[in-house]
Design a protein that fits this description.
The complex is a heterodimer. Chain A is of the alpha+beta class. Chain A has two domains: 3-283, no CATH class; 415-474, Arc Repressor Mutant, subunit A (Orthogonal Bundle). Chain A has helices at 53-65, 161-177, 218-237, 283-291, 297-306, 311-317, 321-331, 337-355, 366-377, 383-396, 400-406, 415-428, 430-437, 442-454, 461-474, and strands at 3-14, 69-70, 73-74, 77-80, 90-93, 100-108, 114-126, 130-133, 138-141, 148-154, 190-200, 210-215, 245-250, 255-261, 271-272, 279-280. By secondary structure, chain B is an alpha/beta fold. The longest helix of chain B has 22 residues, at 297-318. The chains are: A alpha+beta, B alpha/beta.
Chain lengths: 475, 486
């Protein structure tokens, strides 16, 4: 028998808004437990929800990026159930009228072709509080309670672990480039649940669906799905039935393991939340949200290409949103884009890889790296020297100009050889001598630069400057 | 002189004239609260009220509410002051924040002297189901009659002469019905007119902040203080606040008022009906056009079931936060499920549990269309019909209750009934439509008061007050309090 897997994904994205979905409680990650909590977050009697405008703007932007139909009225519903992490005894969500519906994204397949994955819905909701269980006590941290979430539900159109991985990767790119979320799977700001079943190829009916939870990396999504496909295929091959169950991915064994069997699904008794009157979204509001949206990866890629960068370099620059932001800042120096890109892609990336840090933790500021690259471009330092300076800058983000001075001792400090070059430069630039004599200080800088150029950056700049001044006085 | 039996405006004049100081008023109100024989109080704010009166800002003394004592129904959150909703599940609960209503009153210099009893979590119309037991009608010296609910303690405290105004909440008729039983003015505004932030929700789509006063003018005064947008309650309206006292001198000439035939037909008490009709005649003589309007009786019969289904469904969800995990008393248990189970089993009375079951049942997937959504459709039909009447008329006039305050012994718990109970439940129409609605005294039967009700168009409170004031003048029944000889 030949099987076809049918895979649908539900992705929860935690938004990085300033405040929570329905309260003024602060959204911050890594703070002490229960420090970012207001009365609404703990469902004190009489508190009421107020919709976070920025969260709505974010949701509109993501909807737009995924080519969805955006509802022009906001409706919220209650999902009623009791659980220890659910303060109100219901979660506010958008069951009946999600803000986004019927969208799609295109993913890149291994063979270079593209596949369109349709997206059923995108809705906003609120996160629950975080539970910490130890052997004798359960602790609740309400910092997370009420953090805005968007849930994105795909149609069951994915057919392999690789496709699912590419799909999540694309969505992560969208939400991070739009500044909606950190999109960190390992920290739970992007969470993915997989629904997967198999059926005989050519069959249109669906098989029994298994849910896989707690997937914390792109790699694990792919591995878990591929494992699950073969597990289900084997079962059916040998005449067994796939059970309706929830499984999790075990990293050690690289297998999915049973969490619980699913019996009748819970009745959440959804109804429209009477605390939130429907909100009309004007065309203007929706358009403003879209037009003021940060650039998506694709848009950046097109922009970089126009600067003359090749496809491969571009793809490296947009692989991580923060790196592209760093690169965008560097572009403001007006140095050669290709030179800037090379530094980011090779030298900077190497440091990040070696130390396992993100660009946000990279010690050299955009300002200083920009200066260094401009110095290279102006011929003030050689590539070799620039790398030396770069190494030093990694230690304390020092100004590369100062470092170049200090490094002067290691440069060419041979008086006679420098004097030869000075004389050569002076003979070629008689006008500069006159300018200098007429009090134009810039002339000196120009002449020093010419000597540096002649020496391929090897001349000690301080000594060059000193000798040049003396020589000019003599003339 | 017992200033506490006067209206707000009269007390205000006395304060300005130096006849009585806010502190004397507050001390006297606190004393009366402690001597209360009607079981009106959950908590008396001895320390808090005195502290507040000491800190009154004299620059504010021209505010009508400066130094005026008042009470809050115990479902309004008050920071550092216990708030129980008259339910055991919130015994000892001391809120960390204050309701918007409370803050706005305090800002005007009004002084909270107590939190009042209510039907448990505002569910019930008798004033008998709170965790402190029955609240008695101050007009009945034998303590054998209801004050009505659910805002029973607020009704009792005001009609017993302890405070000139009292805050309650109104989901079906919880202020306007007890007002009828104790001879007070009971008012609820348009849905969204007053912020509900900090008011414990019973059924959000029907809940209103409402209040008791001793005359129509005082009611308009209180509304002016409380009305207006609050960003913490996103259902509160942005519409500008009117000067609700501005039309109190108008007359009834040219006013069109509708009587609803199906409601009047259900009033079996001939004295109440005769008195009501007399008032109607006098209003006609003043120039009002008053017509008997017929609406589909099926809609009137649908009021009670519609109310029960919607209110119980919303209530079961609204009260799901009461699990004993975050606040309130904590029952023990081996697991989360057990703790919640024990808390809710011990914390709620049988009546509340029954309502939760009804609510849950009507929200279940297999029942939702037949019950919850059908009730919503019914609600729309009823509201559309009433709004059509109000398109032609300035107000709808009905007897507020079919009788004077019933005997406590006649209360048959909260069991479902197979009767339609139109006369007992028609005031809920104003909750369905979110319409402003006011009960004022209409007459007496055997020394017990009964009221009439006027309901107007959404956000037309000024007009409604104007009409109500004329009816108050016609009946001559204003500023009445129960005699003290319990």
């Amino acid at each position: 028998m030949e099987f076809e897997p049918v895979i649908g994904l539900e992705i929860h994205v935690e938004m990085k808004t300033k405040s929570k979905m329905f309260s003024s409680g602060r959204v911050a990650f890594g703070d002490d437990p229960n420090t970012n909590v207001v009365a609404v977050d703990m469902a004190f009697p009489g508190t009421m929800p107020v919709v976070n405008k920025q969260a709505v703007i974010n949701a509109i932007r993501v909807c737009h990026a995924m080519n969805m139909t955006i509802d022009d009225e906001l409706w919220f519903d209650r999902k009623n159930y009791f659980y220890s992490d659910l303060p109100k005894g219901y979660q506010i969500t958008q069951q009946f009228r999600p803000i986004g519906s019927n969208g799609y994204i295109d993913i890149d397949l291994e063979d270079g072709s593209k596949k369109r994955i349709n997206i059923e819905r995108l809705h906003m909701e609120e996160d629950t509080c975080k539970q910490l269980h130890s052997w004798d006590v359960s602790l609740l941290d309400y910092n997370r309670a009420g953090i805005p979430l968007i849930e994105i539900v795909s149609k069951p159109e994915l057919r392999s672990g690789y496709e699912a991985m590419k799909y999540v990767e694309k969505i992560r790119s969208i939400v991070t480039f739009l500044d909606v979320s950190d999109g960190k799977m390992e920290e739970g700001s992007l969470r993915c649940d997989v629904n997967i079943s198999i059926r005989e190829k050519g069959n249109t009916a669906f098989g029994t669906k298994v849910e896989i939870k707690n997937l914390n990396s792109l790699a694990n999504i792919q591995k878990a799905i591929d494992f699950e496909i073969s597990r289900q295929s084997l079962l059916v091959e040998f005449g067994d039935k796939v059970q309706q169950e929830t499984r999790r991915f075990d990293e050690a064994s690289k297998e999915t393991v049973l969490m619980r069997l699913k019996t009748d699904s819970v009745d959440y008794k959804y109804f429209v939340d009477p605390n939130i009157a429907p909100i009309k979204l004007s065309e203007q509001f929706i358009n403003d949200a879209i037009n003021s949206s940060p650039e998506l990866a694709e848009v950046k890629l097109a922009r970089y290409k126009k600067l003359g960068l090749n496809e491969y370099d571009c793809s490296l620059l947009i692989a991580d949103k923060d790196i592209s932001v760093y690169f965008d800042e560097l572009l403001k120096t007006n140095a050669n884009p290709k030179l800037l890109a090379n530094w980011v892609i090779s030298d900077v990336q190497a440091v990040l890889n070696k130390n396992g840090i993100s660009i946000k933790e990279f010690p050299i500021s955009v300002d200083n790296l920009g200066k260094l690259i401009l110095m290279i471009e102006a011929g003030k330092v050689s590539n070799k020297q620039a790398r030396e300076i770069f190494e030093k800058m990694l230690e304390n983000n020092a100004n590369p100009e100062d470092l170049a001075q200090k490094l002067g001792t290691s440069l060419n400090s041979d008086e006679a050889s420098i004097m030869n070059m000075i004389n050569e430069v002076l003979s070629q630039n008689p006008q500069s001598i006159i300018d200098y004599k007429n009090g134009k200080d810039r002339a000196l800088g120009f002449l020093v630069g010419q000597v540096m150029k002649l020496s391929h950056g090897q001349a000690n700049p301080a000594m060059t400057s000193k000798l040049l001044t003396e020589e000019l006085k003599r003339r | 002189m017992d200033y506490l039996k006067l209206s707000i405006s009269e007390i205000h004049k006395a304060i300005l004239a130096g006849e009585v100081s806010p502190k004397e008023l507050i001390l006297s109100a606190l004393k009366k609260a402690h001597e209360d024989k009607n079981n009106a109080f959950e908590y008396i704010c001895d320390k808090e009220a005195l502290e507040q009166v000491e800190n009154l800002n004299e620059n504010q003394k021209n505010n009508l509410l400066y130094g005026i004592p008042f009470v809050l129904k115990d479902n309004f959150s008050t920071k550092d002051i216990p708030t129980t909703g008259s339910s055991n599940i919130l015994n000892g609960y001391v809120p960390i924040y204050s309701s918007e209503v409370y803050l706005r009153l305090v800002e005007q210099g009004a002084i909270l002297i107590g939190k009042t009893t209510m039907d448990e979590l505002a569910m019930g119309g008798t004033g008998t189901t709170g965790h402190k037991g029955v609240t008695y009608n101050p007009w009945d010296k034998t303590n054998s009659r209801l004050v009505g609910g659910s805002s029973c303690g607020s009704a009792a405290a005001s009609s017993a002469g302890i405070v000139p105004f009292a805050i309650g909440s109104d989901t079906g008729d919880s202020v306007r019905k007890p007002a009828s039983y104790v001879g007070l003015v009971g008012f609820k505004p348009t849905w969204g007119r007053i912020s509900r932030y900090g008011m414990f929700p019973f059924a959000t789509s029907l809940d209103h902040v409402a209040f008791f006063t001793r005359n129509v003018e005082d009611s308009a005064t209180i509304l002016k203080v409380l009305a207006g947008r609050d960003d913490k309650d996103s259902t509160s309206s942005f519409k500008p606040v009117d000067d609700y006292c501005s039309q109190l001198n108008a007359n009834l000439k040219g006013k069109k008022i509708a009587l609803i035939k199906g409601i009047n037909d259900c009033i079996n008490d001939t004295l109440i009906l005769d008195t009501f009709n007399k008032v109607v005649e006098l209003a006609k003589q003043e120039g009002a056009t008053i017509d008997l309007v017929e609406i589909d009786n099926k809609l009137l019969k649908a009021i009670y079931p519609t109310y029960i289904v919607i209110s119980c469904a919303e209530a079961t969800s609204n009260n799901a936060n009461l699990d004993g995990i975050k606040f309130g008393p904590r029952a023990e248990g081996e697991s989360y499920e057990q703790i919640v189970f024990n808390n809710r089993t011990n914390g709620f009375s049988e009546l509340i549990k029954r309502r939760f079951v009804i609510g849950s049942y009507s929200l279940l997937k297999e029942n939702q269309n037949d019950l919850f959504l059908r009730a919503q459709r019914c609600r729309h039909l009823i509201v559309n019909t009433i709004n059509n009447v109000l398109d032609e008329y300035d107000a709808i006039l009905t007897p507020a209750t079919p009788s004077v305050a019933p005997l406590i012994s006649s209360v048959s718990s909260d069991k479902l009934s197979n009767e339609y109970l139109i006369a007992d439940n028609h005031l809920a129409i104003a909750n369905f439509g979110g319409l402003p609605s006011i009960t004022i005294p209409c007459g007496f039967e055997n020394g017990l008061p009964f009221g009439l009700n006027l309901t107007g168009k959404a956000f037309e409170e000024t007009k409604l007050y104007s009409i109500a004031k004329r009816f108050e003048d016609i009946t001559g029944l204003a500023n009445i309090v129960a005699k003290e000889d319990k």
